[in-house]
Design a protein that fits this description.
The protein is mostly helical. It contains nine helices and no strands.
């Protein structure tokens, strides 16, 4: 990875740690063994959400929110109570809850959840209503306006699959 980054420095945003790579390999092996439709994120640590960082991550963990799936289903009242408890803005917590909801879709991790959120898709229910071509067009436009939001845009096929799965989940 380091050699690749030297040859093409604009591709990798951050060089991963060995333990991260080992975790990805283990997760990929688990997915390969049992390929199924997800209804919740696969216990993704809360700190892996885009924009949460170590400080907010530790604060959320202290409040009992250890993984992404713990944010799913938080209503306005729950968000408000969590904001009061953690001193984190309701707006940020709401955004993270939206990301968690989107991550129920197979293939949508923290980065693509951020992308979908950036183009105005904030829930699985909303994703189910979208047109794949229009969604891809908006993502490509976002990439031109904000090139640092994600590394590689999803393919049309990926978006079609996400929308199909969203229709089944909603």
């Amino acid at each position: 990875i380091v050699e690749f980054d030297k040859k093409q420095p604009d591709v990798i945003r951050k060089i991963p740690k060995v333990e991260d790579i080992e975790g990805w390999i283990n997760e990929a092996q688990d997915i390969y063994k049992v390929k199924k439709t997800k209804t919740t994120p696969k216990e993704t640590p809360i700190i892996e959400l885009e924009g949460i960082g170590k400080k907010y991550g530790k604060t959320m963990e202290k409040a009992g929110f250890l993984d992404v799936e713990s944010l799913i289903g938080l209503d306005r009242d729950g968000i408000k109570k969590l904001a009061e408890k953690t001193k984190i803005s309701e707006k940020l917590i709401d955004k993270w809850a939206e990301h968690a909801d989107l991550m129920r879709i197979d293939g949508v991790g923290p980065e693509y959840a951020e992308v979908l959120n950036e183009i105005g898709i904030d829930s699985v229910k909303e994703l189910a209503q979208r047109n794949p071509n229009n969604t891809l067009d908006r993502i490509v436009k976002l990439d031109k306006e904000k090139p640092d939001v994600f590394r590689k845009p999803p393919t049309l096929k990926m978006i079609e699959d996400w929308i199909d799965e969203a229709k089944k989940i909603k």
